[in-house]
Amino acid sequence: MLVCYIRVLPQVSCRLKDSVVIIDEAHNLIETINEIHSITIHQKDCQTTHRKLNIYLRKVKAKLKPINLLHCKQVMHCVALLSGSFSSIHKQASPRSYLFTIGDFQTKAELSDINLFELVKYIRESHLIQKIQGYEDDTTVANQCADASKELQNDVKIHTRSVLGEISSLFTSLTNADSAGRILMVCEGDVTPATPPSSPSRNTPSSFLRYISLNSEDPFLPLLSECRSVVLAGGTMEPVGEVKQQLLNSCLSRDVTVFSCGHVIPPQNILPLTLSHGQHTELNFSFEGRKKPGMLQEVGNVLLDLCQVVPGGIVCFFPSYQCLADCKTVLQKNGVLDKISKIKTLFYDEAGSKNSDGILESYSKRVESARGTIGISTNTGAVLLSVLGGRMSEGINFSDDLGRCVVVVGLPFANPTDPVLQEKMKYLDTTLRGTEEGRTPGQTYYENKCMKAVNQAIGRAIRHAGD
Model's pTM, two decimal places? Predict the structure, then answer.
């Protein structure tokens, strides 16, 4: 997705003029563009960067031209304002998050009177990012590391990345139109008074701010104008109307061609089923619904029944890692997992696990070893419990016996009270036209975000024409 970040292409000698660019798995393109143009800055990183700038200025002050000295001091001042914005905005002990428009944040951080265009231009043309990268208060670091814990040593190591480059990108984003993004500030605990930038403390709360890109079309337009053609390919591109509206809205209709082929497998090779009721109750896997007594028990009952009739592998996707963990706990207590284990071996994709490849390899070997067996008296394969949108739900091949049945528990709708999601939906409702079905663009985006995750999970078991 480097081609979507047009500003860095000259640095990697990538020429797009008259090229044909093919972007695969383009169902994620809108979210990817927004993600790579979003920036996160921690308060402690601002303090470290300010200290580096201060050391750099002390060492080269006599060599700098007056205009460069002025610009360098202005960069320091802006970094200090950015760091101080946490304490000026957050004046309470309890953690809290704040959401601002670009203009409101500039006012709160006292950056509205500063020419950020000139500031970013100076940082870029003076190569200030590279110049201060090696500057650090050696005495301070040595004292810190002498009695530092492993965590602190890792923290010092993290600060070697180019935070000033990220801050410069943030300043660039603050020059965008007010509707193009939002600033989310998360304050962890009491940040008053703020730790002075010249003397950062290990006890500084890990508060951060994040620029959230809402406009995915503007960053994509340079790619469209530079290339001869851009091909967006994927197996779950529908509905393509969302892509047209959010990425190609400014293109003429004659310049956009949509090609869609038939399904890779014949109708008789697939059996889609929906279950609205379990053995004892109506199924409802919303956040509140899955807390009801017996709801997760019904998941175990369904899996147990499936294990007795489905050969090979079964992959079950939950809406979140928390839901998977809760279901695992319930089914362990009532003995359903033990019953399933007598028929198929259980594998889990747990949150934070770094052994996904090992889990997949073990799952595959177990399924292959049980090929051709069926019946409740013998181990007939394996069950993999995973999460929609997780590591196992995209790009993994569960062909043939590896995925004879895919189970999706509930629908992974995002939290409707998430302020970032709400701002994204408001932005789409304001800038795009309503859909033919009478839904607003924001509602369409909300539903499509969920169903694309479901389609990706289902597609893990459809890998070739004979599947």
Answer: 0.76
